[in-house]
Write a structure and sequence with these properties.
Blueprint: E1 2-5, E2 18-20, H1 23-33, E3 36-38, H2 41-72, E4 76-81, E5 88-93, H3 95-104, E6 114-116, E7 121-123, E8 125-132, E9 138-147
Parallel strand pairs: 4-9
Antiparallel strand pairs: 1-2, 1-3, 5-7, 6-8, 8-9
Amino acid sequence: MEIILKQDINTLGHKDDIVTVKDGYARNYLIPKGYAINATPSARKMHAETMRQRAHKEAKIREEAVEMAGKLEGIFLEIGAKASTKGKIFGSVNTIQISEALAEKGFKIDRKNILIKQDLIKEIGKYTATVKLHRDVKVEISFEIKAE
């Protein structure tokens, strides 16, 4: 079954993509939750018209994302955390702390757009995270966890 996505879904695609999924997944989950609509001929025509109108706005947004990516390219963050003498952190460091550290540097980025490669950061050290600024624009930033 072909559907048109109404929002980004990590494992499936981005908003306004037309994707093919199994019938049960579409009918029982995606469509009732409001994540997608059925790709009927009339829905496809409406989709094509909205995509044509949105193309100009999308180009401007992508330009801004590329500009911000250039500024973020050389950023190095230092995040403080309470730690033991052996270097183990009490708790863990997650995307919230990274988002706050970026906000201190003047970059307002939602924590949902930050992806840390490791599940949980439980030790002091240097790590990298991926910041998703646009569907096509992603930036790797480095950060270091230091003991407070």
